[in-house]
UniProtKB/TrEMBL annotation:
Species the sequence originates in: Croceicoccus naphthovorans
UniProt name for this protein: Uncharacterized protein
């Protein structure tokens, strides 16, 4: 963020873009940045469903292995063939993951495994541009997802390690620590 010179903004409930001004709290070591929003910005984002603290994964939710879904937008828009416009649909990629010894999340990504859709087997897009996307997790026992649970925010995607066929992310515990520090520093 310190080297970024462009404007950062968001779409408010009324469809207008608004600048995201103010100070970002950055952890270079963890490759994360957060921003505390003033009340007026929170109000303009009332169309967004915010996560509660209960929606954040705990260490026991991740265990030795967990099932993960990485949610994000592609790095570039796709041209629509039915009209003159661009579209950037939300994309989700899922596979099993684990917590590395350094605390980072590691989720397998094998493009050849693809997925099943209404048109049969599909080949997922390369996950370029997914940095900053949410990683949601569900508890598993070995390679079986445990039923009767809801997904929890496990972390934030940081990079696609193509030769290793995996996506690495920051653990939500690191993100939470950064948020607590930012809140304490704002008082």
């Amino acid at each position: 963020m310190e080297r970024f010179d462009g404007a950062v903004g968001y779409f408010a409930f009324d469809g207008w873009t608004r600048p995201l001004a103010g100070e970002f709290h950055v952890s270079e070591l963890d490759d994360l940045a957060i921003k505390l929003l003033p009340d007026k910005d929170v109000e303009s984002l009332r169309h967004v469903n915010f996560l509660d603290e209960d929606d954040l994964a705990q260490p026991e939710d991740l265990g030795d292995i967990f099932y993960a879904s990485i949610v994000g937008y592609p790095s570039s828009a796709a041209k629509r063939h039915d009209r003159i416009s661009l579209e950037t649909p939300l994309e989700i990629m899922s596979h099993f993951g684990e917590v590395e010894p350094n605390g980072r999340l590691s989720i397998a990504f094998n493009k050849k495994e693809g997925g099943l859709g209404s048109e049969g087997h599909t080949i997922p897009k390369d996950p370029f541009g997914k940095s900053g996307g949410a990683i949601f997790s569900m508890r598993s026992s070995g390679r079986v997802v445990l039923p009767g649970q809801s997904a929890k925010l496990a972390g934030i995607a940081l990079e696609w390690r193509k030769p290793e066929k995996r996506i690495v992310g920051a653990n939500v515990l690191i993100l939470k620590k950064l948020m607590v520090g930012a809140i304490a520093g704002s008082r």
